[in-house]
């Protein structure tokens, strides 16, 4: 059931800024309402007739596939806006584009990888009145070779055909000031920072000591920021939130079809065992564990209780995609990732080779607190009382959830608001929980936020399944 949209004051500011500036950027972290604000602005522009065609949203695959359609359906004022994801194989994308042209869709979404295909397919009769670049830091490689550069250069062919352009990002320059040029070019065609990247570099950078890299001149940062400020609205959470409480963001992911079939089969068996209230909740422990493994993306092939059983199979990468988005939004700020299963850490280390594992070596903690580790993996059981991680960062992402409330609270407290203040850091703490939609993940998250018993939550879920059947 769609809900009434009641924006925070800073979300109203985002909407107003988009409406007042035809080409602009919104700089705000994940969970601060960039998507709903952009949707509200698009709805207002289309309703008023200011724009007469659909909006094109460029986003990572997971965000294009589900985040924008789900967010539009969530609110009463946007629930009637049709969102058409142009994703899948070439045949599916072609069908989606035809559907867009034939209907009255308000928004089309597409993942960055398929931008060259869309431009080639639609450039002769470009249907889009405006574009929204979600996670716009992906446009920073506009100047470079490789696949990202190819995508951005392809997009550049149509970027300024559209009257309006919005960049959405957490932090626009994750690796330094040079990241700003590509994103800003799509807004203003080079007015603020130069029409070419070479001109941008020549004005504000010089070669470093090695003679190969580039470093900013002393005047670069204030001058660059002054030039881009008029077209970009930055939202500082410290101005809008009580820093005594962490900012909690639930990042929902859809299980792919194969994973959903496997999960549903396992869940049905688990709940069948929980049909009577006299059944101890963890009488179905093995199946509960299997369900949580499936949520995370892999499942052990044998008995979950067998410590000697280490074989597991990867099922999906939905949570890894979501973590990609969180890391991108962090834009270079260190991220602490909590995991539970050994299959989780194996997949995380493969996906992020630069990540470090929180181990017994005291130097690891020193390196984290000194800002030398941009991504660290930790099991909640290894981050107990007395461990100080607050100097290293203020962002934690739960890749996988587990029933142990004490361990969950303890790992949060390692970087929590109290420790941040004690260390002299005036910054909010962000807690991202990556949750597989319509799964036991939601029950575990409910335990973490409401402190209800495991037994009550599982039995309640069993009753709902029984009633639904």
Verbal overview:
This protein is an alpha/beta fold and 469 residues long. 43% of the residues lie in helices and 15% in strands. The strands form 4 sheets. A 7-stranded parallel β-sheet has the order 3-4-2-5-6-1-9, with helices on both faces. Helix 14 (362-369) links the parallel strand 14 (356-357) and strand 15.
Q: What's the gist of this structure?
A:
This protein folds into 2 domains: 9-239, 3-Layer(aba) Sandwich (Rossmann fold), CATH 3.40.50; 241-469, 3-Layer(aba) Sandwich (Rossmann fold).
Write the SSE topology.
Elements (H helix, E strand, L loop, with lengths): L8 H12 L2 E5 L6 H14 L7 E5 L1 H14 L8 E3 L4 H13 L4 E5 L3 H8 L7 E5 L11 H14 L4 E6 L9 H10 L8 H8 E3 L6 E3 L3 H9 L3 E3 L12 E7 L3 H17 L11 H12 L1 E3 L11 E3 L3 H13 L4 E4 L3 H10 L4 E2 L4 H8 L5 E4 L16 E4 L6 H9 L3 H6 L7 E7 L3 H11 L3 H15 L1
Helix pairs in contact: 1-2, 10-11, 17-18
């Amino acid at each position: 059931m769609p809900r009434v949209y009641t924006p925070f004051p800073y979300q109203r500011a985002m909407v107003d800024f988009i409406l007042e500036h035809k080409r602009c950027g919104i700089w705000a972290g994940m969970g601060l309402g960039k998507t709903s604000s952009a949707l509200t602005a698009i709805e207002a522009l289309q309703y008023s007739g200011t724009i007469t065609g659909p909006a094109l949203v460029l986003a990572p695959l997971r965000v294009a596939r589900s985040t924008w359609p789900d967010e539009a359906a969530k609110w009463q004022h946007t629930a009637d806006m049709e969102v058409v994801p142009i994703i899948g194989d070439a045949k599916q994308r072609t069908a989606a584009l035809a559907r867009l042209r034939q209907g009255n869709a308000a928004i089309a979404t597409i993942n960055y990888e398929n931008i060259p295909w869309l431009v080639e397919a639609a450039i002769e009769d470009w249907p889009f009145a405006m574009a929204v670049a979600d996670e716009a830091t992906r446009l920073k490689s506009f100047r470079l070779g490789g696949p990202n550069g190819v995508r951005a250069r392809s997009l550049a062919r149509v970027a300024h055909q559209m009257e309006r352009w919005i960049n959405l990002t957490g932090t626009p320059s994750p690796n330094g000031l040079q990241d700003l040029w590509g994103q800003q070019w799509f807004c203003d065609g080079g007015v603020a920072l130069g029409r070419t990247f070479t001109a941008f570099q020549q004005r504000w950078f010089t070669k470093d000591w090695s003679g190969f890299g580039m470093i900013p001149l002393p005047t670069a940062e204030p001058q660059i920021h002054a030039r881009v400020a008029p077209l970009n609205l930055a939202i500082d959470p410290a101005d809008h939130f009580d820093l005594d409480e962490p900012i909690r963001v639930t990042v929902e992911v859809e299980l792919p079809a194969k994973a959903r079939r496997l999960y549903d089969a396992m869940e049905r068996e688990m709940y069948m065992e929980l049909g009577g209230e006299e059944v101890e909740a963890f009488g179905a422990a093995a199946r509960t564990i299997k369900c949580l493994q499936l949520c995370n993306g892999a499942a052990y092939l044998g008995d979950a209780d067998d410590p000697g059983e280490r074989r597991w199979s990867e099922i999906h990468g939905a949570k890894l995609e979501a973590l990609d988005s969180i890391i991108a939004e962090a834009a270079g700020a260190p991220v602490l990732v909590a995991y539970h299963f050994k299959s989780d850490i194996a997949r995380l280390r493969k996906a992020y080779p630069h990540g470090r594992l929180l181990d017994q070596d005291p130097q690891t903690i020193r390196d984290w607190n000194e800002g030398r580790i941009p991504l660290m993996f930790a099991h909640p059981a290894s981050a107990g009382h007395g461990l100080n991680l607050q100097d290293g960062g203020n962002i934690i992402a739960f890749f996988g959830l587990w029933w142990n409330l004490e361990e969950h609270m303890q790992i949060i407290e390692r970087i929590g608001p109290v420790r941040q203040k004690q260390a002299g850091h005036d910054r909010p703490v962000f807690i991202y929980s990556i949750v597989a939609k319509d799964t036991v993940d939601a029950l575990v998250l409910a335990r973490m936020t409401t402190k209800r018993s495991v037994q009550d939550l599982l039995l309640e879920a069993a009753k709902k399944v029984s009633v639904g059947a």
